[in-house]
Design goal:
Elements lengths: L3 H11 L5 E5 L7 E2 L3 E2 L9 E2 L3 E4 L7 E8 L13 E5 L11 E4 L3 E4 L2 E4 L9 E2 L10 E2 L3 E2 L2 H9 L4 E5 L3 E6 L4 E2 L10 E2 L2 H11 L3 E4 L7 H8 L7 E5 L10 H7 L3 E5 L3 E2 L5 E5 L2 E6 L3 H19 L10 E4 L11 E9 L2 E4 L8 H6 L2 E5 L11 E6 L1
Parallel strand pairs: 6-7, 15-18, 15-19, 16-17, 19-23, 21-25
Antiparallel strand pairs: 1-14, 2-13, 3-12, 4-11, 5-7, 5-8, 6-10, 9-10, 20-22, 22-23, 24-28, 25-26, 25-27, 27-28
Helix pairs in contact: 1-6, 3-6
Bound molecules: ligand LQZAQKY5 and molybdate ion.
């Protein structure tokens, strides 16, 4: 058994960064910007009014002006203004030559073409200077996971096609004679494949492209058939059949088909029988079948692998430190990822930690991480957590 950190190092060595592809801007949300892009224009490209009102050269309560024209967003006033003159102006309009300040319409009394500034006149010129937001050539740095705000900024920079890292293709293989798909009618000795779908959702959330392969049965021929269907997957994930029983055939069959195993078994709980290696052009990760084990390994190992493939860096899942809301007993020899919940008082670690209990995992929002042989800890002591 190797420590979690060593297993992660192996995985990062196996994970190959993916190529860059260009996508239309509207499809770039949630993707990873693969190289820096530069603004193709200044924003705003002219000094622009920030308010609806009147543009004048100088404002003071009591001053009067004659309105000589109008400037609207998308329709500039062609001329310039002189002393005693004003331009009716709207938010987003280019500020005409000669205008030094925009008086908001609430601070003006209008009579025909004549305006008088009232005593309420506020501060500020209400003008957004040319290039105030950004100048042409300003870069958005990469790598960067593009959120909605980034997409708005890229649009404003006039970037219509965005260089992003290709999405990793992930083939998910459930194994076991006992499994049927959700919606099917299970026999008396069968259960529903569950973590398969949890991992599918996790992969989608991380920006990968998961593909569900048919369930492989617990025999060599079936496993070989399904392994033959991985196509050009970047990552092959098997679920179950990873342990030491007579029906745990994933490692021997994968090895007979060319798996170069990097490790098998990690000193963690749950997740001990984890294995990984290179499998043709792909990397393979064999997850334990116990539903919570598979999901925990998804968060602890698969998520960092997908981020590394996307070019977001080879780093473990982020942790934060929180106080314990109740004492926890001494830990055993394996790093323990305990299901728990964040409360206003701190982390409440659940009593029931069996790795088959998806209802407990579903109630959890953190995994509290206990190092091997961690002594018993009292209420209020700090503990590392990994958010689910
Ligand atoms: N003698 C030993 N027995 C076991 C050991 C051990 O060290 N010595 N390790 C235990 C640990 S820890 C784990 S974890 C499990 C892992 O076993 P496998 O990876 O071989 O998984 P299976 O035996 O195929 O399944 C275990 C359990 O999970 C259910 N399962 C499997 N796949 C799915 C799925 N896609 N969706 C829902 N549930 C699934 C399966 O029915 C079993 O109940 O081994 C221990 N045994
Ligand atoms: O490692 Mo198993 O994953 O403890 O249930």
């Amino acid at each position: 058994m190797i420590p979690v950190s060593e297993a992660l190092d192996h995985l990062f060595t196996l994970a190959r960064p993916l190529e860059i592809e260009e996508v239309p801007l509207r499809e770039a949300g949630g993707r990873v910007l693969a190289r820096p892009v530069a603004a193709r224009r200044d924003q705003p490209p002219f000094a622009a009014s920030a308010m609806d009102g009147y543009g004048v050269a100088e404002a003071a309560p009591g001053l009067c002006f004659t309105v000589i024209g109008e400037a609207a967003a998308g329709r500039a006033f062609p001329g310039s203004i002189g002393p005693g003159e004003a331009v009716r102006i709207f938010t987003g309009a280019p500020v005409p030559d000669g205008v030094k300040t925009v008086v908001i319409q609430e601070d003006v009394a209008r009579d025909g073409d004549v305006i008088t500034i009232t005593d309420r006149l506020g501060d500020g010129d209400n003008i957004r200077p040319f290039g105030n937001d950004f100048r042409a050539g300003m870069t958005m740095d990469a790598p960067r996971l593009l959120g909605p705000q980034d997409i708005a900024l890229l649009a404003s920079m006039n970037i219509a096609r965005v260089p992003v890292t290709r999405r990793p293709q992930v083939a998910l293989i459930s194994t076991g004679d006992e499994l049927v798909m959700p919606g099917e009618e299970p026999g008396p000795d069968q259960i529903i494949a569950s973590n398969t779908f949890g991992l599918y959702a996790l992969m989608q959330e991380l920006g990968a492209m998961p593909r569900l392969l048919p369930i492989a049965r617990d025999n060599e021929a079936s496993l070989r058939t399904v392994f033959g269907m991985v196509g050009d997957a970047d990552l092959v994930v098997t679920i179950g059949g990873a342990s030491v029983g007579d029906h745990d055939l994933v490692a021997p069959v994968a090895q007979s088909m060319g798996l170069e195993r990097a490790f098998h078994k990690v000193a963690m709980r749950p997740g001990k029988p984890l294995m990984s290696g290179r499998f043709g052009n792909a990397m393979m990760v064999g997850l334990p079948g116990n539903p919570v084990s598979a999901m925990v390994c998804g968060h602890v190992f698969l998520a960092p692998v997908i981020r590394a493939m996307l070019g977001l860096g080879a780093r473990p899942a982020p942790r934060e430190t929180r106080p314990l809301a109740a004492p926890v007993p001494q830990n055993g020899p394996r790093e323990h990822y305990m299901r728990g919940k964040l409360t206003p008082e701190g982390v409440m670690v659940f009593d029931r930690q069996d790795s088959a209990l998806l209802s407990v995992l579903g109630a959890a929002d953190v995994l509290a991480v206990r190092p091997p042989h961690d002594p018993a800890r009292a209420l209020g002591e700090p503990i590392d957590v990994l958010r689910l």
